[in-house]
Each structure stands twice: as structure tokens, then as C-alpha cells.
Amino acid sequence: MISRIIRLNAILEQADDDGPKGAEARKQIGLWKTQITNSQNASDPTVFNDLFDQIDTCAKEVFEHVHTDIGEKTDTYLDALSGYRHNVVKLLRTKWLEGSNDAIEDDHIMRQYDRITARVTVWLSPHDDTVTGNAPIPLLSAWLLDYAWSSLDTVKEGIIEICRWFEPLLEYYPVVRGKSHEMDDKSEVMINNFVVNHVVKIYAPDADLQLCHFLWERRSTLIFHLHNTMSTISEQEAQQDRPKDIVQIDTAFDKLPRDEKQAFMKLIASMKKASKCGLRYSIQGSGAYAMHVTKWDWQNKTLKNQKRDIEPLVKAVFLELRKVRQYRAVILADSIIAGLRKQLERFHDQIDDEFVTSKTWRWWDDIEIPKDVTPFMSAGMDKNFKSKLQQIQLEQQDQDAITELVTYVEHMVCARATTAKDSALNSEVVKTLNALVYALKANSTCLHNSSIAGDPELSCDFKATIHPEIPKTKDQVDANTTLEPQISGPSSKRQRSSTNSDFPNARKKRARNSLSLSSVISISDDEDVVG
Length: 531
Prior knowledge:
Blueprint: H1 4-14, H2 20-38, H3 52-63, H4 75-97, H5 108-123, H6 142-154, H7 156-166, H8 173-176, H9 186-195, H10 207-217, H11 222-235, H12 246-254, H13 258-277, H14 288-293, H15 306-331, H16 335-350, H17 383-410, H18 427-453, H19 504-515
Helix pairs in contact: 1-5, 3-4, 4-5, 6-19, 7-9, 7-11, 9-10, 11-16, 12-15, 13-15, 17-18
């Protein structure tokens, strides 16, 4: 009996051909991948328990210096994936097959190991019968979890804004219901409201997984663009003034126009009537659709005190409606952001026609894309535009690092002008810090220009560089100090954010713990998967 790997290698080599035989090989690989996907529940992940660290090392060695998005069908990534697949398969064969003196066909355990190794080989092949789509990502390991974490953290403002599209109380519920943890996880709320929407229900069993794939595939293009837009809005403090407690909610609500307060009273009365009748969808008026789709169970019988249990969150809905109408209508005039929103609508409606009700998706904020805006309806972008976005991403990372450095110095006791707790920075410290920030930004621009030109030795004139701006705040310094706009002052309330380097060991520990419960790749014992 010839090892499955030998037979597989012949088919994988054939898949590179452009002719009919190559097409047939790619079709076969696609069928095998489908079988592997459909057999996940038959997996036994414990077979990989003593290999996780070594598989993780394979990923680190190959992909750590690949400066492209993991899973994209670029020449750089596909070359790295080929080397990674070779190393992993070699590791599995060395560990499981080559140390045995028994023939594979004579030993049940050896046959099982041979099947698993073959399926890993198939899964890591970039070939299938689809023209579009992404290349396979590495097997699940601590390195891959670190990569996923950092990729999503890089675009977190964009993801948070998408979460707000699905839940009107996302920013308010945790501060009003401090002892409840129902909306602590923003992405979980988004997925819940997408799948278990009270108006348009989806019955597809894997709708949550499909939504995650949808967002992941757009993380470095459309969502990254949204992140940059929202980061700019945040710097302008348009996102920073949401009330932080019930007192602030009441204060902000009292400032609303009279007609909005009247709409609030009508909605409260309508909700009260609906609760008695058990008809959630009978409520009408301003804010009614937000109450239809929210994860908050406002009809819960335990909410007996209307003034305490109901009114603060309904007020929060009106405050959020007023806020999003100020900035969301503006960002939706951007064709890329409008495209992302429109794609989400269509994705929800088309996820699986047989599982979706006849009703179409409606956003709770009722904000429509301007008629003169043509939404960008592609998941990807042309190479030039995507290259520009990736360049902006690198510059943003440098800017974030510089901002974090400034924030760190701002909170150093030894940098203050006096011993008072609210002291401004010492003027000499600020002067030196300004010079350091200028040099770092100039050097960052120089390095990126060198990267674009493909010349690692390219020198640059600092005076000719264009620098990214560091967000400024309204803090003061001592009388002898002139603070340049890009440095925020010592009284800034912004806390130093965690970076990937702050907690890699903790994440790797969590990753290894989780790997004992989930497989590196799900592989069944079905003999037909790889012949």
C-alpha cells in the first residue's frame, strides 16, 4: 500500500498545470477540502497535543518576516506557505511515521496518522477549483492567535463602529447596568444582533461563522479604511463625549430639544403598553426600531421600576441617535464606508435564501447612504489602492508608537515641573521631547519612502519629510514652556494603551490552553477524503 502522501504529491504537482489535467486535480483538491470541512465534528484534537509547540515554531520561522496579509494569494505569501507546508508535513512524518518499523497498511494507528498527515497536506495547499478566494492560513497555534489579535487590534476603531451599527446601547448599557455583563463584549453583541435579530431572523446554523469570515476578509481594506476615518473622528473628540454614568445621561438628555423629549415620553408609554400585551413590535415612533433590535430585554418582568430600570436606557437611545446623526451621515458619504455598510446589508439578505425571512435588513439608526454616493461593492481593492492603504497602516503604527511614548513621558513623575500632583511638564523636558518626536516622525517618513522606492540605503532630508500628526490635547504646561501642538500635556486622562509587546506570553499561554480543546485542523477518519 503506497502512502497517501506519495499519491497526494503527484496530484498537488499536477494542480499547477494550466491544462485539463490541472483543472481536474484542482477540482479533486476542492472536494477533499469540502470533506475535511464537513467532518470537523469527528476530529480528535488530542492527537496533536505533543506537537503544538513545534507547529507554532514552524509558523514563526516562516511567516514572522512575511510583510503581507496572511491568507492572501500573493507570491510572497504562497512561497512562504509552501515552505511552511513542507516543514509541517515533514514534522508529522518524522514524529508519526518514519520512526516505526511496521508497514503503514499493517498498523491501524499508522494508517490513522497517515490519513491525518495527508489531510494536513491537502488543507495547506493553495489549490482548489475556485477562481477567487483566499489561500489557506497556517494551522491554529499561538503564533496565529497572536497574528489574529494584532490584526484586529490594528483596526479596532473600525470594528467598534461596525458593532455600533448593530446595537444602539453598545456604549451605554455597561455603564447603566454595571452589574450586568450582557454587553461587555462588543463583538459578541454584534454577532448576536446579526444572527438573532428580533425583526429579521436568520436560521442558518453557521451565520455567526460566516459573518466572522466576512469581516476578517475585509479587515485590511474596507475595515481598515473605516478605522482610519473613526480614528480621525476620535482625535477630534467627536467620539469622546458619550455620557459615562446615569447622572451624565440625565444631564445630556435635559439639554435635548422639546420635541425629542416628547418623543421619548411617547416611546416610554408605547413600550409600557407593549410589555403588558407581550407585543414587542407594536411600539412606534422615534427610537422604536432601536428597541426592536437591541439585545436589551426591556420586556423582562424583573424590570419593575420604570424610572430606574427603563428610562435611563431609553434616554440613552435618544442620545445615541442624536450623536450618530452628527457623524455617521458624514462618514457614509465616503464610497468605501458606504460600500462596507451596503455589503453587510446584502450579506445578511443573501447569506442563505432558504434560511432568511422575506424581510430585508434595516439599520436601527435609519441613516441612508446619500443618493449621490456610489458604494464600493468589492471585498478587495486594486493593487495600487491597497498598497496605499497598507502604507498608511504602517505610518499609523509608527504614529501610535510615538503617541504612546509621549503619553508615557507625560505620566512620569520625574518629568514634572513641580512636585504637585497636577503639575505641568518641565519646560526642558517638553523641549527635548518635541525634538525627539520630530526626529522619530522624520525618520519614520524616511524609512517608508525607502521602502516604497525599494532602496534600503535611500537617505532623506529631514526638512523635506512629511510628518504624521500626533493628536493634541488642551493641556497646559508651566509658564516657561511653549508646547508644540503634537505633544499632549500631563493632565491628559488618556491612559497608556496595551501593545502587543506588553502581553505576548499571556496570550501564548491562553493559546496553548485553548489548543487542548480545539484541533489544529479538524480531520475525520473518513477513508474517502484523500482516496
